[in-house]
Design a protein that fits this description.
mainly alpha, two-stranded antiparallel sheet, about 50% helix, about 5% strand
């Protein structure tokens, strides 16, 4: 006898089959095990409790460091990525030049002074007019906070009053160190940990390591581009033209 007749087997009618149009059951996140993990299911006992709770072990988790909000985060973001994020964030703010704090008071630099700025970064930073021009360039690169932080640290070093030191140190921390600030500067985790310890009893030199790191960053990253920027080259050409006419 045919096996189909004995077992009562009947082939499916594909032509007249009905398509299910009911609601789609929700996906169970616990059933997806990533990284070769193991899924354990324990049903809750008792009447009317047909559903169980699913726990997944060894599943792939997001990198906690990238989502942490503590001040000692060990994430190491490169400066170029930070600049892109600042550019996207500040384009929506429509910052006008009138809203930016005034630059340092200084006299108009001579052509000789302007040329000295290209000899070394130290000579540029020692000159008030040079700092103003360099700050203007950093503003175009959305990294002006580096110069503002350096200037704030220099101002803190001149302070002798204890209460003023604490007030200025707290302001610097909130404006440039806190990861919640839009003007946060790029510092590694080691320097941040040092600052967090020193902030318990601030001194004029609380941010000394951070100031050196930002100074080095501006020297290596921004200064070479400044020398070839239109801001600096136009000053050189304008000064040369003036001297030749006189």
């Amino acid at each position: 006898m045919c096996l189909r007749k004995r077992s009562g087997y009947r082939p499916p009618d594909l032509l007249h089959a009905k398509i299910y149009t009911g609601p789609v059951p929700a996906e169970r996140g616990g059933d997806l095990v990533m990284g070769g993990g193991r899924s354990e299911t324990s049903a809750l006992g008792g009447p009317g409790r047909g559903r169980g709770t699913t726990t997944t072990q060894n599943s792939q988790r997001p990198n906690a460091c990238c989502f942490c909000w503590c001040c000692c985060c060990s994430c190491s973001w490169n400066e170029e990525e930070r600049r892109r994020r600042r550019r996207r964030r500040r384009k929506s703010q429509d910052t006008n030049l009138e809203t930016i704090p005034n630059c340092e008071a200084c006299t108009k630099p001579s052509l000789e002074e302007i040329r000295l700025w290209s000899q070394s970064f130290d000579k540029l930073m020692r000159n008030p007019a040079g700092r103003n021009v360099f700050r203007e360039f950093l503003r175009t690169e959305y990294s002006e906070e580096n110069m503002l932080f350096w200037l704030a640290c220099e101002d803190l070093k001149q302070e002798v009053n204890k209460s003023s030191i604490q007030e200025k140190a707290r302001t610097i921390y909130e404006d440039y160190i806190s990861i919640l600030s839009p003007k946060e500067v790029s510092l590694d985790s080691r320097v941040r940990e040092v600052i967090n310890r020193k902030m318990q009893d601030p001194t004029p030199h609380t941010f000394e390591d951070a100031q050196l790191q930002i100074y080095t960053l501006m020297h290596r990253d921004s200064y070479p581009r400044f020398l070839s920027s239109s801001i600096y080259t136009s000053m050189i050409h304008g000064g040369s033209r003036t001297s030749s006419e006189s």
